Amino acid sequence: MHCRERERVFRFLCSALAFFVSINWFFAQPAQGFASDAQLQAQKEEYQEKIAAADSRLNELKDEKDRAQDYCDLLEQKITYLQEELALCEQEVENAKNDIAAINNRIINNENSVKTIEKRSESVKIQIDALTETLACVYDEWCARMRAAYISGRYTLLELLLTSDGPAALLTRLEMISAVSRHDGKIMQTVSSSIDKITALQAQLQTDAAKLQAASEQLRADEAARKEKRSAYLALEEELAAKKAVYDEEKAESDLALKKLTEKTKMYSEYRSESAEELERIEKEIQAQIGDAENQYKGQKPASGDVLDLIYPVPGHTTISAGYPNYSSGKYHGGIDFPCDTGTDVVAAQAGTVITAKTLDYSYGYYIMLYHGEDEKGRSVVTLYGHNSELLVQEGQTVAQGEVIAKSGSTGNSTGPHCHFEVRLNKERVDPLDYLE
User: Which CDD domains does the entry mention (predicted)?
Assistant: First the structure.
């Protein structure tokens, strides 16, 4: 093949391969969260069935005045279902956000990879062009040498002897012929090396092009998935907003029904719809406060008697409006509630040290915790008094059994004046009735 023809072939091949380096570089990764979303949807459907059943029963109880407690309990149960359903919707929204973020990150990584590939491919094309041009020139030179050799013919050693003017001229001519031969050999080495390099570079371009071509289909699929996920995300946000509105409405109805019931019966307690976040936050605080007290007073024993011989926290009031471990609806209740008028004395159930005296506008409201030392089993003993209207002691103060520490009230999450009383052993809540005399 003529050298110029070979050059055109190489240039055509470079152009053809370069055409493929215009698509994105992408290694597909599996979409995240789809299996979890399916599970969430199944759980949502389960709660929707429970909510529908609760609604049906609520309609039956709504006009039965003597079933007000049952109505409140069932409404509270429905609120619990709504809370769970709302949490599932929030998880779905979060999953969708995470999926979109993952796809966006992959696209960003892909764009960076494309830039790298394009830059590398451009460099390879430049190298191929340079090698092709060098090869063409060398090939032209080699062709010219071959033509000249053909025209001039080949000299035998005898011819050189006969035509040379003495030994010196013969040696000179032999050296020239040897030099030409060596030069021709170098030309052929250059040609061979250039062809090998060009072939390797072309193979690299072909490999990159194949990867890019295969990845482009996955990229288009992911872009479509992102579009679909964004649409799903917007729909989920709308659903979540609607669920929140329903929850707030039902919560308000539940709180109102419970308030009316407790005002009628005077069996005050707590609203049942306190958020899980608030419950978790206050519980973490209490656990930390008790932990600090355990470290500070480790090994402390009561001066006399059994530390778990407790007296009622509201003298003369033994009626319980909500017991341990559940409300009448079945929802967890970590203590017992003693309904009483606002301003009633609240006393220390046992001698101890005030480790907490806080005023909150949620949960326990104005509450006190007393540390009483360790029982005979080495367990720390703490009592808690919640929803007070006034605190009469300070943290670090020691109190005697029966000493007035607060005035009862209805602060925090409360339907009316009462004392919420807890007993905790090694931080864990237990039934206070097991220890009250």
Answer: M23_peptidase
